[in-house]
Write a structure and sequence with these properties.
This protein is an all-alpha fold. The protein contains 19 helices and four strands. Helix content is 68%, strand content 2%. GO terms for molecular function: branched-chain amino acid transmembrane transporter activity.
Amino acid sequence: MNSAITPTDLGGTPHETTRKTRDSRPFFATTMGDYAFTAIFAAAVLTMPIWLAPIGAGYPDILQKFAIFGIFAIGFNILFGFSGYLSFGHAAFLGTGSYAAVWMFKLLSMNAIFAVPFAIIVAGLLALVIGFVCLRRAGIYFSILTLAFAQMSYNLAYSVLTPITNGETGLQISRSDPRLIDRALGEVGAGLPKPNFFGIELQGYPGFYFCAILLVLGFFLALRIRNSTFGMMLFAIKSNQNRMGYTGFAARPYLLTAFVISGMYAGLAGGLLAVTDPLAGADRMQWTASGEVVLMTILGGVGTLLGPVIGAAVMKYLEQIFSSFNDGFLYRSFDFLPGWAQNVAVEITSPFVGEGWHLTLGLLFMVIVIFLPGGIMEGLRRIGALFHKPKPADGTTGDTAAARANHQ
């Protein structure tokens, strides 16, 4: 059982202890460290077209998906990774964000400055309602409730709210849409309009950089949440919610806030999907979309900041790259083998590419869960530990210190 630590346990008054704790934090847990970490992350994201090109992932469409689903996974991690509450219903917020964005395109303007905030707000309101109901339960019951709401949302969008969602066909823009602001400014052309940001069409690389900037902002917000008092409360709930209740803290307001923030991230991702491809369909609200973001987070590392982004990139890379491989590609890849061996190699590997790319994802997920329960980030930490073994303050070796700790 985890033990609760009070300020007086650390020695000194609460004010002195808080100051000492803040001063003793590592650099990357300070405010300046947050800015530095975000700057490094931003540099890596904004240069992805360069360093991902050698592996065939440097073109705009897949980069946009990396950024959008990275936002989706970061938001999901705020709920699941920080507080330990597993939701199977986040696809409802993703789809809601897409519908809200497309309606802004149809009614007001093709400028994303209207669509994206509206998608965030609508998804946040829906998350507030769903979270208020679902958070009356915890554990598996909470997960089942969120799944039920997601399925209800999917069926409403598919067959009930067809005047709003256009049902099976999906909601699309057309030349006859009102677009009141665009018409007032005389920005209505003869062709089918495209989403833009103050005149810059959000297609290709401009669309990627628009999504990438929002990814960096979302990452920074998640970083600040993790290092804030609110974030500490969420981790305390994850550690031992019952003890939190015994000390007089009401966990539900913190959980509801985290749920709404997480839903708003999903709404942002859904809005960006509509920005890069102005179409909203009920398929984005299916339970499989909720399962995808769970896999992304676990694959990268639950509770970490970079892990969900890496997990999203790996999944979308496998989807885009491995699904495009066919038998012709495999024969060319194994052309160095004798004819019979080439045929055997193609027969063995063909079920894992093309339409069977999910098998590759499944095997990778099994390997990660079995050997790296902490996800890809745990693997990176283990690799880093091979090159850096910190020495204890008393000068003993790491093995001796570990033995002493185990003995104690």
